[in-house]
Design brief:
442 residues; GMP Synthetase, Chain A, domain 3; 2 domains; 12 helices; binds guanosine-5'-triphosphate; Small_GTP-bd; P-loop_NTPase
Length: 442
């Protein structure tokens, strides 16, 4: 079915001009929704993102055409004389918040995020360039196993990409969702396998979604379990020296002090941890090196005793993300940049757009329904006033799916158009006119 003549004019009440207070980098003027001959369309307000990220940087806008993006990707990096670089793989169970954290580190949303698992379908790179340092962040699909992949009909890439990312990483962040009662007490076998396969790569434990914890005491227990009581070669001794039990923030009720890291002036534990573990060092004993664990060893392991740091944060609201970012910048080693400083992601503009629309479909359609929607881009053009005109067809296998996707009176699809359009404006920093059309795949 074609949704002809079901125009929804969301923009009627929206401002037609960028307010004077808009940041100077907003160059395009949002146009009005001008109606369409088919499906649903929307034109939305102004980019709403923060003008700079936690380190006071302005992340570069994303190219709006594939040609421009290719030119940027192929161009020589504009690196300074003594460049530094760090490639970071972010791994963890599906839904741990990997893409949310990537977006926060980048300062702009370029990776899709949703409440449903397996939002990220393949690896993608994000780039943070800060002064002489480039962080290359490898967002990966949630680690899963072949059985689950088969059950959910996941692409091959979803099994292999996290491993591929590890091969290219200088450091790995292992993300754990501390609000998930089922998974938070132990690292999954896939994560442990990944870590033990690459024992030479320094690893950092990141406890995410701390904002959702009512009782911060649990963090102490989790740290002990997920690290097997050892961090950076030092034994942690749990102490119950909690000072307060605030639940509203990721900020520490108590802190971990790590007396044994003389080279780290600004100790990350002090800044980022919610738990205080009074810690007894293994003294002058040598820091144990990670070994290659076999499947039998891994079977009995719940945590990884070779993390070099622990961070506790709330990626969604950006709490403590700047602390982690600063730490990552400090870990960078001398090396050539991979990208020009105006590159924010290796994804093409079309990939970003597909992912953003898919994210909304995942968010608003129930159960397995979103996974069967096929997206076909029918138009990607620059309009007469420099706005980006995008039209996409959404093919669904059944009429019932189409009814769900459109929603009563077009409510669902118009919401998808509106939110995706706003996100696209925030990514490309220009006016975007998005049109979606739903059809049953014949
Ligand atoms: N409350 C809260 N929610 C969070 C936080 N970080 C992420 N989320 C939410 O968790 C859900 C999953 O986040 P994603 O970033 O898509 O997770 P992911 O690990 O990339 O997921 P996959 O792509 O399935 O592997 C989304 O609904 C996020 O909004 C956080 O710090 N606090």
């Amino acid at each position: 079915m074609n949704l002809s003549n079901t125009d929804i004019t969301h923009a009627a009440a929206l401002p037609a001009r960028v307010p004077v207070s808009c940041p100077p980098w907003v160059t395009a003027i949002p146009a009005r929704w001008s109606g369409s001959s088919s499906a649903l369309g929307s034109i939305l307000g102004i980019p709403t993102e923060k003008p700079s990220n936690a380190l006071g940087q302005h992340p570069p806008p994303v190219a709006t055409s594939k040609e421009e993006q290719d030119r940027l990707l192929q161009g020589r990096p504009d690196q300074p004389q003594n460049p530094k670089v760090l490639r970071i793989a972010i791994i963890g169970a599906p839904n741990a918040g990997k893409s949310t954290l990537c977006n926060q580190l980048l300062g702009r949303k370029v990776f899709p995020v949703s409440q449903k698992v397996h939002t990220t379908r393949c690896k993608a790179r994000g780039v943070v360039t800060h002064e002489d340092t480039q962080l290359i962040i490898l967002d990966t699909p949630g680690l899963t196993n072949p059985c689950k992949a088969k059950r959910h009909k996941l692409e091959e890439a979803m099994l292999t990409d996290p491993w591929d990312s590890m091969k290219h990483a200088d450091l790995v962040l292992v993300l754990v969702d501390v609000s998930d009662h089922w998974t938070r007490n132990s690292l999954s076998k896939e994560v442990l396998k990944c870590l033990s396969q690459f024992p030479q790569i320094p690893s950092v434990l990141v406890l995410n979604k701390v904002d959702l914890l009512k009782n911060k005491f649990i963090l102490l227990e989790l740290v002990t379990e997920l690290t097997e009581g050892i961090v950076n070669g030092k034994k942690l001794e749990a102490s119950s020296a909690f000072k307060d039990n605030s639940s509203s923030s990721a900020r520490s009720p108590v802190q971990i002090t790590q007396a044994s890291s003389p080279e780290k002036g600004d100790n990350t534990w002090d800044n980022s941890s919610d738990v205080k573990a009074s810690e007894s060092r293994l003294g002058t004993e040598e820091v144990q090196q990670p070994k290659h664990y076999g499947p039998r060893d891994l079977k009995n392991m719940k945590g990884w005793p070779f993390f070099q740091e622990i961070f506790m944060l709330a990626a969604l609201c950006g709490e403590e993300v700047d602390t982690l970012k600063r730490y990552l910048l400090l870990q960078a080693k001398p090396g050539a940049w991979e990208f020009h400083s105006s590159v924010l992601t290796s994804q093409s503009p079309q990939e970003i757009c597909n992912n953003i629309i898919r994210e909304k479909i995942l968010e608003y359609l129930p159960l397995e329904v979103p996974y069967s929607v096929i997206q076909v881009t029918e138009m990607w053009e620059e309009g007469p006033s420099g706005e980006l005109l995008i039209a996409q067809k959404l093919l669904v296998p059944r009429k019932s799916h189409m009814t769900m996707l459109i929603g009563r009176g077009g409510k669902v699809i118009s919401r998808i158009v509106q939110e995706a359009g706003q996100d696209l404006m925030n990514v490309f920093l220009c006016d975007v006119r998005l049109r979606l059309q739903v059809e049953v795949k014949s």
